[in-house]
Amino acid sequence: MRLPSMRKFDDGVTGCNTTFVRHCVGPAAPLFRLKLSKAVGRERGRFLAEYNQRLFNGLLSLSVAGVVVARFVLRHVCTPEWPSGTPRTVRV
Questions:
Q1: How does DSSP classify residue 4?
Q2: pLDDT beyond 70 at 27
């Protein structure tokens, strides 16, 4: 699982904005700057939502794996055997 990088996102936005400021001239430039800033804000929100979702999924997977490993350890490693050699079954 790879988390997206906020630094990479910001670098992409900065590069796009730099190119836009250099090449966009004329009476429509302020309107397009406003549109670009709204689009960046919208995409930043989507980026953060995706980041949080991936982080949550990773932590959830890690928690489930921890529970499965803990149950295995409790059931098979920590359970003593009866004198006859048969393992004692414990309902968890």
A1: P
A2: yes
Both tokens assigned to 22: 């250099």
Contact between 65 and 47 under an 8 Å Cβ cutoff? The reply is no
Exposure class string for 42-62: b at 16+ Cβ within 10 A, else e = eeeeebeeeeeeeeeeeeeee
Single-letter amino acid code for the residue at 47: F
User: 3's torsion region: left (phi>0), alpha (psi -120 to 50) or beta?
Assistant: beta
Tokens of 63: 């928690």
Tokens of 53: 């979702």
State whether residue 86 is helix, strand or coil. coil
Question: By the 8 A CB rule, do 54 and 19 touch?
Answer: no
pLDDT digits (tens, 9 = 90+) for 30-67: 888 888 889 889 999 999 999 999 999 999 999 999 99
- The pTM of this model reads 0.64
